[in-house]
Design a protein that fits this description.
Elements lengths: L1 E6 L21 H18 L7 E8 L11 H7 L3 E11 L6 H9 L4 E7 L3 H7 L5 H13 L4 E8 L6 H11 L6 E6 L20 H7 L5 E3 L2 E3 L4 H7 L4 E4 L5 E3 L2 E5 L3 H6 L4 E5 L2 H13 L5 E2 L5 H9 L3 E4 L2 E4 L5 H8 L1
Parallel strand pairs: 1-2, 1-9, 2-3, 3-4, 4-5, 5-6
Antiparallel strand pairs: 6-8, 7-8, 10-11, 11-12, 13-15, 14-15
Helix pairs in contact: 1-2, 10-12
Bound molecules: S-adenosylmethionine and iron/sulfur cluster.
């Protein structure tokens, strides 16, 4: 079982982002953190969480580094008895707010993996994306995190924007790999509804650019957007469709065949953190999810979920391979295409 905690506050809204986050009402941070504790009580009962049973924790956002470490204390105290020993505890952070004191405080609480939203080290691209930090701040944040002893550091990069050139991307990736990181998440820009980028001509739509990114990252690719010497246990858990508890107003929970969606609105969530809507998944929904997730990553797909004849065709075309009753994708960038053929 995995635990995800959502922090919905951001200093500013990036042009591409549709995540549930708020740039106003920061005075509600304390109330929000208290509301999380109430939802934890509720969800831990629903998921029947036993001592030493949670396998990994991920605090995402929004921007978790907008919250002072002291405001996380109660939360860490509450979940501590339920965590397995030595598990991965990741937090997302933005370079402009993840100052050294914040990083030290969060490490003291037990966080051992950090994922920085760098997006690029090119200042023009950072402005184009509407980011609140510059390249120097990004470099400093990564170095500070390493210096205070957080060993597992990941950075997020966005590519396939209109202003990308091979030279810009190569410089970004070369610089990234000189830093003390062991993981890169590289996302192709998606144009989301209700963002500043909606209906704007900002994407390059170069179908080969993903391969360029892959070729210039030294870490092994273990999912379409993820590369690392240290692979995220938490992310792999999602792709295996493990149960996950979702805490916070932008979180989703998943238990066996049901998804739970808390209130998305900040005020409503604080008022009633245990309110949620439910979505039931039938056997075929679950089968389709397993196929898509398994092909996008090194997880693979159980053969019994698939049609033998179609598997044979794809093996002959050298697109997939079979091992121990599972099939594995050879090219994650083709995952959706292959999945659509197989479902
Ligand atoms: C939950 S978000 C943000 C975490 C953190 N607030 C930050 O900005 O660094 C995680 C990552 O998703 C990626 N992302 C968000 N929206 C995206 C989009 N429309 N297209 C591509 N990547 C996106 C960004 O790389 C971002 O760092
Ligand atoms: S990308 Fe991160 S910082 Fe930017 S608006 Fe989205 S959640 Fe906030």
């Amino acid at each position: 079982m995995l635990l995800y905690i959502h922090i919905p506050f951001c200093d500013s809204k990036c042009h591409y982002c549709s995540f549930n986050s708020f740039t106003k009402n920061h005075h509600l941070k304390k109330d929000y953190m208290d509301a999380l504790l109430k939802q934890i009580d509720f969800e831990f009962k629903r998921f029947n969480v036993k001592k030493n049973s949670i396998e990994s924790v991920f605090i995402g956002g929004g921007t978790p580094s907008t919250i002072n470490p002291s405001l996380y204390e109660k939360l860490f105290l509450k979940i501590a008895p339920f965590l397995k020993k030595n598990i991965e505890i990741t937090i997302e952070a933005n370079p402009n707010s993840a100052k050294k004191e914040w990083l030290a405080g969060i490490k003291d609480l037990g966080v051992n993996r950090i994922s920085f939203g760098v997006q690029s080290f090119n200042d023009d691209k950072l402005k184009f994306l509407g980011r609140a930090h510059n390249s120097q701040e990004a470099i400093k944040a990564v170095e500070d995190a390493f210096e205070i002893g957080i060993e597992n550091i990941s950075i997020d990069i966005i590519y396939d924007t209109k202003i990308d050139t091979k030279s810009l991307l190569k410089k970004d990736l070369d610089l990234a790999q000189k830093l003390p990181i062991n993981h890169i998440s590289a996302y192709s820009l998606t144009i989301e509804e209700n963002t500043f980028f909606e209906n704007k001509d900002v994407k390059k739509d170069d179908e080969n650019i993903g391969y360029f990114i892959k070729d210039n990252i030294k870490f092994p690719q273990y999912e379409v957007s993820n590369f690392g010497n240290f692979q995220s246990y938490h992310n792999k858990g999602y792709w295996q469709l493990k149960d996950y508890i979702g805490i916070g107003c932008g979180a989703v929970g998943f238990l066996k065949n049901e998804r739970f969606y808390p209130n998305k609105d900040l005020y409503s969530y604080i008022k009633n953190p245990i309110y949620h809507t439910k979505e039931k998944l039938n056997e075929n929904d679950l089968r389709i999810e397993k196929i898509f997730l398994g092909l996008r990553s090194i997880i693979g797909v159980e053969k019994e979920l698939l049609d033998e004849k179609k598997i044979k065709i794809l093996i002959e075309e050298n697109k997939i391979y079979e091992k121990n009753n599972k099939i594995y994708n050879k090219n994650f960038f083709l995952a959706d295409e292959i999945a659509l053929f197989l479902i």
